[in-house]
Specification:
105 residues
Amino acid sequence: MILRRSLVKVLLGLIFLGNAGNILIFSVARITKGIPPFIPGSADTLADPYADPLPQALILTAIVIGFGTQAFAIALFKKVYKNQGDDDLDKLRSTDSMDYKEGNN
């Protein structure tokens, strides 16, 4: 969907791509239920099974970055639609707006 001509479809493609990346990290990390990864004062190592915090931290960071990217893309696409009046990427190939060409800026 990222390669479609409509800005809305591009945005949905970005959302799907971000979610797919998160699911990929979850599936590769083999998330298991277990105790928190704290070493008790009387032990030298962790007791099995324990929950690995790294994949969870990566996913949370990816979610926050994804929301920021999506918010920026929504604001950018809204501004483009407001200025150009269309969301078709083939019609938005020119960087000059009609007002700029006519000297009304």
